Each structure stands twice: as C-alpha cells, then as structure tokens.
Amino acid sequence: MSPPNTRESGLESSAVTFTATDTRFGAGVSKTVGDLLEREGITNPLVVTDEGIEAAGLLEPLLEELDDDVSIRYATTEPSTTDFESVSNGEFDGVVAVGGGSVIDTAKVTSILLAHGGDASDYLGVDAVPGSVAPLVAIPTTSGTGSQATQTAVLTHDGVKRGISDESLRPAHALVDPELTADLPPRQTARSGFDAFVHALESLTARDHRWIESRPITYQGANPASRALAREALSQVHGALERATFDGDDRDAREAMSVGSHLAGTAFSISGLGIVHALASTLGGLTDDPHGACLAASIEAGLTYNLPVRREEYADIARSLEIANVAATDDEAAEALVDECDRLRRSLNLPTSMRALGLERSDVDTIVENTLLQERRLPTNPRGAGDDLREHLLEVEFDG
Length: 400
Prior knowledge:
3-stranded mixed beta sheet, Rossmann fold, alcohol dehydrogenase (NAD+) activity, ADH_Fe_C, Hydroxyacid-oxoacid transhydrogenase, disordered N terminus, ADH_Fe/GldA
C-alpha cells in the first residue's frame, strides 16, 4: 500500500514500538492452560467466563486442567463500570479468561482491580493504570474482537461506550484454539467475524504513524509492521467469514478466522482504528445492540467519511481482494470496496443502517457528540472528525 496521499499534519517521530502477546495457536492448545499456569507460578487463578460458555460445554474440559477449587466469575454480555464492585484487591494471583471479547475485557479490568483496587471508572482513558496488573491468560472462544492481543478494554460508563487503554492490559499469554469456535452459532460467527474484518480494514487505513499529532497515545498509527499484519488478516477474514458463518463445520474456514482475528487484533493494537469503530461504540452505548451489529450499521458512513483522504488506499485494498479489476480507476475501485462491505453485511444478515438499530434523525446530535468523545479511536482516524460529521451522517444515514 502506498504512503498517505494527503499531508496529515503533526510529523513528530518515525519510531514504532511493536509489542505482542505471547501466543500459542492450534487445535487443542487451550488444554495446555494448566501447564502454562504452573510454569508461570500462578497458583490461585480466577476464571472469568460467561454462562453461555459453560452451557456450551467449553469450560469443563479446561477446568479439568486446573485445581478442583478454582473460583469462577461470570461476565455480562456488555460489561459496565458498575460490574466490578465485588472484586477485591489481591484476592487472586492471576486471571484466566475463557470467552469472547466481553469476557476478556472483563478479565482485563478484573486484573487491574486485583492489583490496584478502586473502581473500574478510576482507570478510564489512556495510561491511567499505575503499574503492572495480575497476569492474564486469554483463551478466546470467538474469532472477532482480538481482545486477547490488545492493550484495551471496552466497557460502558454512564451510558457511553468507553475504554481503558494501557500497555499493562495486554494479556501475558493467549491460547488461540480454533476448536473452541467450532460450534459458534451463525449469528455470533457473523457478528464477531465482521468485527475482525473491520479491525483489519481500519488498521490498514489508519493515520500514518509519522503524522500522529499528540504522543503518548495508546495507538501509534499505521506503519509497516501493522500494515503487514492487517493485510494478511483482511485476506484471511474476507476469504473465510461467509464460509464459517454458513458452514460451521468448515474447519479450514474456522482456522482462517482464528488466525485472521488474532492478526487483526495485533495489527490494530499497534496502529489504532478509526471512525467506524468510534461510531459503533457510540451506537452500542445508545441501543445495547451487539458490537458487530453496530459496526455493520456504521461501516458505510465511516468509509465514505474517510473516502476523500483514503481513495487510493481503498482502491488498492479492493484490487488486492479481487473485488475490483486491476484496470479500474481509483474512484471505481474505491467505490467497489464500499459496495463490497455493504454486500458482506447483507449476506451475513447484519444491520445495513443506523435506522435498522432503531435510531432516528433526531438522534444525530447525540450520536455525533458521543462519537467525538471516543478518545481512543479518533486520533488514528485518517480524517479529523468534527462538526462536519453531523452533515455526513444526515446525508448517508437519514436523509438519503
């Protein structure tokens, strides 16, 4: 992909820090969790999961690898800052997360409170964690959020999706086992997989790292390392998501989704994301719809908002995914990418507009106001977001 085609103000540094979670990948690796904890000297772990994981029979084989008296904490579907009142400082010496993004994010916040106490809301924002946290082993059961590879946790505070971003939150270890996703229902496969797709796409087109105006921030902007990871992630997910959704027994597709999701998470943990995720986080806080559904509802508005400054990059992506002819103009190829994202969300039976989530024209001011509060997302969006976002949303989502 070519360098940014606009002069993004604020050139400060070309240095990039590349940190990644220690990861084991492959069928059956989740059952090595007991050996891993023993090797790390973790003798009293707290297991964080959810009732759906337990009911699906995914938890029991892993508990067999741990001590009989292990403690379990159940996460909510959409974690909130009010969910952690019972967590006591120093009660456990490690955390094992078994589940999707909400579970892993809950485990991350739990690891903070075990080490430092206080309330979850004390740590909202960037670099607010005062030191190391209880070690976390993440075992994802979906292929979407990539939370096992990132330094952030998303949770709702006062009705707004917010985040905690700190390098200490990156899990110490991840056991990425495609077998744990084999029975994931089509709807969850589609929603979580669309998240991975947008992670890769926004990471690949994020603001270049040489033009980030304010440092330190959690994310560094797109750079050669993040782009390489995101490009491969996008290829894997785009080629496998529909297959995994409509034929859950396709082991190759499940494996590709696990690989792509993890690579996408690693990529955006370096580069950051953008306006699509900022909008989706806002919609999730307003409607309580799942994150993947909110991303699907936001992607057209987000991509077209950035189109004036990422036309060439969108065109390159469309050609690499073979959804645009190599002879197509940049305008044609970029439009083909926007069309493909719309086709994909329709194929997966995901929402195709903000109206589909029950939002109306009268909600636009609130959507814009809350989106502009997304301090983790907007610094790495390739186009600065401001008041013009309101007019854009009205045109694309409500008045078109």
